[in-house]
């Protein structure tokens, strides 16, 4: 895939001369491709990091954020088709909402009979077959909604307290929360690709037993890695996470056939 054909969803993307695998990274609710900007410098040269930019943020700010997962999945499948069906193997990494996107996109790829990812790295997210939370949060009054964001500990306090910034970003964050809150799970059939689940040991939103349940959604191998930290452990322990991803890739390429 040369630079003229770079997927329109890629941002902070740096091509590698001879990548062995591409890692397509999907953001958490309210996040952007920025979260994965440094990964290409930290991972091995054989791994080409492809941060995915969703509509409504940074370079795609002029686009309306998408509020329904089926619509987003269709858009992403169409945009990412050149990377998915290239000669280079690929994998997905997604944190929180990004994990849900990764899983549903893999289902869509399977439905289209395209080449499947060699691995799904699903982080900080309960698998979709588990019961939903009691009430949606995307439509809460502003103060209550910001309080929910504060509990997740992923947004700096100075940002939450800045009305101008929040007025700009709240519509995007609400749209992402609506994607998650209105999602309807349909099992259809388990995926054929391996799943690795990641999580924080002190994540109040996702317990270890929750992450264990991802193994129900694949007929292939399943593994789990836990790190110190809460829901956003991946920022504080990025090096440990990336080391685990590299080790998983090494195993994937040396897995007995």
UniProtKB/TrEMBL annotation:
Pfam families linked to this entry: Thioesterase
Domain Thioesterase: 22-246
Record has Hydrolase as a keyword: yes
One annotated GO molecular function: hydrolase activity
Signal peptide interval: none
SUPFAM superfamilies named among the record's database cross-references: alpha/beta-Hydrolases (SSF53474)
Any one GO biological process: lipid biosynthetic process
Listed InterPro entries: AB_hydrolase_fold, TEII, Thioesterase
Protein keywords: Hydrolase
Family according to the record: Belongs to the thioesterase family.
Designated name of the protein: Medium-chain acyl-[acyl-carrier-protein] hydrolase
């Amino acid at each position: 895939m040369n630079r003229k054909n770079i997927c329109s969803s890629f941002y902070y993307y740096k091509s590698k001369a001879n990548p062995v695998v591409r890692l397509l990274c999907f953001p958490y609710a309210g996040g952007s491709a920025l979260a994965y900007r440094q990964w290409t410098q930290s991972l091995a040269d054989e791994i080409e990091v492809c941060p995915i930019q969703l509509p409504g943020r940074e370079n795609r700010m002029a686009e309306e954020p998408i509020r329904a997962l089926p619509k987003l999945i269709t858009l992403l499948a169409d945009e990412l088709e050149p990377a998915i069906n290239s000669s280079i193997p690929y994998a997905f990494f997604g944190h929180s909402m990004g994990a849900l996107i990764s899983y549903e996109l893999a289902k869509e790829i399977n439905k289209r009979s395209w080449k499947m990812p060699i691995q799904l790295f699903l982080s900080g997210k309960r698998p979709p077959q588990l019961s939903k939370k009691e009430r949606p949060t995307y439509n809460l009054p502003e103060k209550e909604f910001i309080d929910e964001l504060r509990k997740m500990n992923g947004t700096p306090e100075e940002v939450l307290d800045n009305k101008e910034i929040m007025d700009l970003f709240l519509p995007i964050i609400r749209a992402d929360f609506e994607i998650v809150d209105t999602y309807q799970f349909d099992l259809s059939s388990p995926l054929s690709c391996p799943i690795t689940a990641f999580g924080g040991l002190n994540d109040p939103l996702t317990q270890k037993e929750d992450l264990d349940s991802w193994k129900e959604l694949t007929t292939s191998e399943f593994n789990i890695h836990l790190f110190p930290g809460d829901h956003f452990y991946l920022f504080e322990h990025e090096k440990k996470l990336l080391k685990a991803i590299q080790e998983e890739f090494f195993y994937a390429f040396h897995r007995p056939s």
